Amino acid sequence: MTSENLPIVVIAGRPNVGKSTLFNRLVGRRQALVSDQPGVTRDRKEGEALMRGRRIRIIDTAGLEEAAPDTLFGRMRASSESAVSMADLVLFCIDARAGITPTDAHFANWLRRQNRPVMLIANKAEGQAGTDAALEAYSLGLGTPLALSAEHGEGISDLMGEIVDRLPDAPRQERRRRRDEGPEEAEEQEERPPGPLHLAIVGRPNAGKSTLLNCLLGEERMITGPEAGLTRDSISVDLHDEHGPIRLVDTAGMRKRARVEQHLERMSVSASIEALKMAEVVVLTIDATLGVHEQDLQIARLIEKEGRACVLALNKWDAVEDRVATRKAISDRIETSLAQVRGIPVVTFSALTGAGVHRLLPAVRKAYEIWNSRVTTGELNRWFEEMLDRHQPPLVDGRRLKLRYMTQVKARPPTFLLFGTRAEMLPDAYKRYLVNGLRETFHMPGVPIRIQLRGTKNPYADK
C-alpha cells in the first residue's frame, strides 16, 4: 500500500504541549526536532508508524494559535488546519500539568465543527498527580481523555491500541491481498517496486527552498514568506514525475558555523546535514540576485565530500537584471572554486512564478544517471594507457612510479581502483589529471569521482 493510501492520524494542539515528542514516540525514532522553546514546529512533518500490523501515516503540525492570516503564526495555523481537513483521526493534545487554557477550549470547539474523529490526549500526565489533572479535560466535550507522558513513554502502547480501534478498516482490496497471499508474499510484493530517488534541497536561509518545493508539488505544503529561516526541520514529502517516485526533503537554511548561536538553530543545521548525507542527489539553491556566497561554496564542498550528485539551482532568476553577466560571473566562480566537481549542471528559474522550474527534475534525473554510471574494464584500461602515454607518472624519491591498470569498484559515486608499484605515493596533481580525464572521456560532469590507490608489495623488501 502506498503512503497516499495509508490512514492519516494528525497530531494537533496549541504550542508546547508535546506534539513533536508524541510524534517521535509513535514513529519510533527522533524524526522531529524537540525543544523546550514553544513553536519549534512550523511545517507539518510526516512519518509512518506500524501499529498492530497496520501501517499508519502520522502528521505532526504546528501549534494552533489565534493570529491574522497574513502573519507567520496565521500561515502556520492554516497549514495545521489543512492537515486536519484530510485526517482520518485527530489526536488533540493538551498539557495536563498546565490545565485547560482558553486556547485549548477555543480549538476544541473548532475541532468539533470539522466533522473529524477526535481523540483527546492529556500529555505530560506523569504519575498520579498528572492523571488526576487530566480529568479536567472532560470539560472540553471531546470524550474521555487518554492520560499519557510522551516524554517518558507512559501510556503509549494504550494510545496505539486506541488509534487502531478508531481508524477505519483497511481497504477491501488490501485485506483480500493479505488473505490470498499470506503475510510473507504480501511483504515481498511491497518490496518489489524500485525505491524512490532521494533528493534534498539545501542552501542558505531565504534562498527560496520551501517555495521551490511548493512549486514542484503544486500546493502550499511548506510555510513561506519574506522572513529568513522559516523552515526549522527537514521535511520529507513524496513526489512523482514521469520516471517514477521521488522522496523530496526540504531543509533548514545553513549559515556559517560562527553565526549559529542558538541551540535550536544548531539542531536545524544538523538535521539539514543529515538529510544531505541520506540523499542521492542534492539541489543547492542559490539566490541569483545575490550571486554565489562563500557559504554556498562550503555547502557544495560538503556535498562533494559526501559523494552526492549535485544540481545548482539559481532561484529568483526573474529578478536578475543583467542575466548574461550574472550567469558568467556565477559560472566562473563555480569553475574556479569547485574544480573537483567540474561541469556541475546549472538550472535557472523562479520558484515564485514557476518559470523554468520544469527544467529542474530532468537535470536531477540526468545527474542521478551519471552518478550511477559504470565503465567497463576494457574501455577503462585503453583510456588509461593513452593517459600514461600522454603524461608519464612522476618521479617519487628519484624513481618513476609504475602504474599498471585500473578498474571501477563501484558507482554512486563512480569509484576507481588504481594498481601499481608504489601507487599509494601518487601525487594529488596526477590524481587530478586522471580524474579530469575520466570526467571528460566518459562524460561524468558535475559528480564526485573517487580514485583509490593500491600499491604492489615488493617480495624482496624484507629480505
From TrEMBL:
Classification via Pfam families: KH_dom-like, MMR_HSR1
Keywords: GTP-binding, Nucleotide-binding, Repeat, Ribosome biogenesis
TM annotation in the entry: none
Bias kind Basic and acidic residues: ranges: 163-173
Residue numbers spanned by region Disordered: 162-203
Segments forming domain EngA-type G: 7-171, 197-372
Residues forming coiled coils: none
Chain residues that bind GTP 1: 13-20, 60-64, 123-126
Residue numbers binding GTP 2: 203-210, 250-254, 315-318
Quaternary structure (record): Associates with the 50S ribosomal subunit.
Stated role: GTPase that plays an essential role in the late steps of ribosome biogenesis.
Homology family: Belongs to the TRAFAC class TrmE-Era-EngA-EngB-Septin-like GTPase superfamily. EngA (Der) GTPase family.
HAMAP family xrefs: GTPase_Der
Name recorded for this polypeptide: GTPase Der
Taxonomic lineage of the native organism: Bacteria, Pseudomonadati, Pseudomonadota, Alphaproteobacteria, Acetobacterales
